[in-house]
Design a protein that fits this description.
Elements lengths: L4 H29 L11 H13 L8 E7 L6 E9 L5 H12 L5 E6 L6 E7 L2 E10 L9 E7 L6 H8 L5 E4 L6 H9 L3 E6 L16 H14 L6 E3 L4 H4 L2 H11 L4 E3 L4 E2 L6 H10 L6 E7 H17 L2 E2 L11
Parallel strand pairs: 2-5, 6-7, 6-12, 6-13, 7-8, 8-9, 9-10, 11-12
Antiparallel strand pairs: 1-2, 3-4, 4-5
Helix pairs in contact: 6-8, 9-10
Length: about 325
């Protein structure tokens, strides 16, 4: 039996009234429970301030360049930390702001900054909703530089035909590639130089190409002839590096090689002249220990393979943030004793 017209009309009316009532209840609940921005969930300003200062430490900004006092947020009226930072002249304020943004982007906090063109000053606000919970004022110091020292990297065991090595060659980081002399690498040498990289020649027992091979039992005349070929074909090599565990190193022919290179003002170095890093469980500790031992204006040259270099790449980024510079290894020869 079909419901009567009157029943259907009353049902529709009831459903309409119910919908209006539910909407009204929702609006009322939102109105009653909505917390004004100034009354938002409490934020631990001390924790926020400490975290912010630790971010500054990542950029090598010393404690003496940071002053913490108080300011008042205009919207909430609450007292908030006001941090004044003297920025070393070799560090840019936008670089710091970018690092802070990356750190807080996953939080419910946002960054708002105001830059003054004249003088380069910047004021940054760390916001939660419409309220500021931290204010920071950045200004460039007139005479403070971060003298953290320099790093250089020599990549050994490379195959210039590998795509991963090609990626390193095209990267912006300054690197030195230690290569076994081989005619097949000649075309890649220009690519290395065009990308602002360096290369050096490895002398060990594993050279296959006869015209570049140096053996412990070779005559002095043969060694001299090979050296002439090497310095001609690889004239752009920044220096030659000998494996001090090789049989050639232990032979008297090493002195012949050294003498011939010295006549041409070419430096002959050994593996032991560098900081050797292996991709083992102590890698990060060994790397960071060497970094800590670098005094201002000094440096260290690291010898490592491609895999090890990729493993410590995040640590290198941290070092650069703190003010260490990655330079060509040829600039740090004075660090070799």
């Amino acid at each position: 039996m079909m419901p009567s017209l009157k029943f259907r009309r009353n049902l529709l009316l009831s459903l309409f009234v119910l919908a209006v009532l539910l909407l009204a209840i929702k609006i009322l609940i939102n109105t009653v429970l909505q917390v004004p921005d100034s009354e938002e969930k409490f934020v631990d300003s001390k924790e926020i301030s400490q975290r912010f200062i630790s971010l500054l430490d990542n950029f090598g900004i010393e404690e003496k360049l940071i002053k913490v006092n108080k300011a008042k947020d205009k919207f909430s009226g609450r007292e908030i930390p006001n941090i004044r930072i003297q920025v070393p002249k070799d560090l840019s304020i936008p670089e710091i702001l970018q690092g802070i943004y990356q750190s807080y982007r996953k939080d419910s906090l946002r960054i708002y900054s105001v830059e003054k063109v004249k003088g380069g000053k910047s004021t940054m606000f760390l916001m939660k909703g419409k309220s500021a919970i931290l204010q920071a004022e950045f200004d460039y110091s007139k005479n403070v530089f971060r003298n953290k020292g320099s790093l250089a990297f020599i990549i050994k065991d490379v195959d210039l035909g590998n795509s991963s090595t090609a990626t390193l060659i095209e990267s912006p980081t300054k690197l030195n590639f230690l290569i076994i002399p081989d005619s097949k690498f000649m075309q890649q040498l220009d690519v290395i130089k065009d990308n602002g990289k360096q290369f050096s020649i490895l002398i060990d027992d594993n050279t296959r190409e006869q015209k570049y091979k140096l053996g412990p039992g070779y005559s002095e005349q043969r060694v001299v002839a090979v050296v002439k070929t090497l310095v001609t074909d690889f004239a752009s090599a920044v220096y030659f590096v000998i494996d001090n565990k090789s049989e050639f190193y232990k032979s008297s022919n090493r002195e012949v090689l050294s003498s011939e290179l010295s006549k041409r003002n070419i430096k002959l170095l050994t593996f032991s002249d560098f900081v050797n890093l292996d991709n083992d469980e102590n890698l990060f500790n060994n790397f960071n220990r060497e970094i800590e031992n670098i005094a201002g204006n000094e440096g260290a040259i690291f010898l490592l393979d491609e895999e090890t270099y990729q493993s410590i790449a995040p640590e290198i980024i941290k070092c650069k943030k703190k003010g260490y510079k990655v330079v060509n290894s040829s600039l740090l020869l004075q660090t070799i004793k």
